[in-house]
Design goal:
The chain has 4 helices and no strands. Helix 2 runs antiparallel to helix 3 (63-81). The longest helix is centred in the middle third of the chain and has 22 residues, at 27-48. 66% of the residues lie in helices and 0% in strands.
Length: 110
Amino acid sequence: MKEIAIREAQEMVDLWIKKYGVRYFNELTNMAILSEEVGEVARIISRKYGEQSFKESDKKHDLADEMADVLWVLMCLANQTGVDLNEAFQKNLEKKTIRDKDRHKNNEKL
């Protein structure tokens, strides 16, 4: 399977929306959808790695697919608000590296 760069993925989402989705849902709707999708990831994680047991209706959910749904909606929001996630991620990684370069190494809890 071909690897896809973040910027390319954002463009693919935009093209899909324009071809099949008619238009983007508004930003507030997409924020609500993002929350729903994160909740579905949390539900799977809490059952697979936490103390909760799976209900029969939970067993059909796929963690990778739910994570991809989160990524999809996040990319929709980025497209709608003019955020280049590729650039934002690089800046965020640089910020974390500067801020935390010694923080975790010196954390006695880790």
